[in-house]
Amino acid sequence: GQNIDQPTEMTATEGAIVQINCTYQTSGFNGLFWYQQHAGEAPTFLSYNVLDGLEEKGRFSSFLSRSKGYSYLLLKELQMKDSASYLCAVMDSNYQLIWGAGTKLIIKP
Amino acid sequence: IAGITQAPTSQILAAGRRMTLRCTQDMRHNAMYWYRQDLGLGLRLIHYSNTAGTTGKGEVPDGYSVSRANTDDFPLTLASAVPSQTSVYFCASSGSPLLADSYNEQFFGPGTRLTVL
Question: 3-state DSSP call for residue A81?
Fold first, then answer.
């Protein structure tokens, strides 16, 4: 079967750094996506990794290890507006996205 | 219209009734998708369409049907609603469905919150 695992909830302090992990087992791999979803809103695209390594985009970075079936999203200089759910999704061999249940990130002052 | 729109925003529906959720995009994207999102579960794909005139079944297609008569519209129909179809429904689109590329990100509509009693 196909499976995406990520922690249900994490808490961090404003100004700090947080790492959200994602492990996956899928039939085929055509890239891994991270999305942000604020409560009551639609998911919005954050990052995409298809090769091993780190992709940096401002305060957000995403890392991929295909051999380990592992990715993480790193958020630096946390702001209150970063309180949201972060969704990990893998594009499988059929080019369909398989989604994790999401990690709810709570930022405390 | 900018991006993807969905209608209605929310709906309360009696069990057994027929309901169509509407989705329209103006980005000329080839692919469109319908997902449902339930608490504690990831987004689950209901149906998809890689291009106008074609549709396919996703992970949870039972009780739902779709059509793709043109590029812009992708309605989702519940023929006879049941309480287990209570959920938030998201429509999404992407440019190149059969391509492993960062430009193949999916853009989401604002969602429809459906309650079936």
Answer: helix
Q: What are the tokens at A107?
A: 């930022």
Contact A33 B105 (CB under 8 A): yes
Residue B83 CB-density burial (10 A; 0-12 exposed, 13-18 middle, 19+ buried): exposed
Distance from the Cα of residue B62 to its chain's centroid: 14
Q: What single-letter DSSP state applies at residue B61?
A: -
Query: Residue for token digits 């993807």?
Result: B4
Which residues of chain B have a Cβ shorter than 8 Å from any chain A Cβ? 40-45, 48, 58, 90, 97-102, 104-111
Token duo for residue A18:
């947080």
Report CB contact under 8 Å: A97, B58.
Answer: no
CB atoms within 10 A of CB A49: 20
* Three-state secondary-structure class, residue B83: helix
pLDDT single digits (tens) A63-107: 999 999 999 999 999 999 999 999 999 998 888 899 999 999 999
Distance (Å, whole) CA B43 – CA B92: 11
Measured between alpha carbons, how far apart are the two ends of chain A, in Å? Answer: 40
Contact, B16 vs B8, CB < 8 A? no
- Under an 8 A CB cutoff, do A101 and B107 touch? no
Q: For residue range A19-30, list pLDDT tens digits in order.
A: 999 999 998 999
Q: Are the C-beta atoms of residues A99 and A37 closer than 8 Å to each other?
A: no
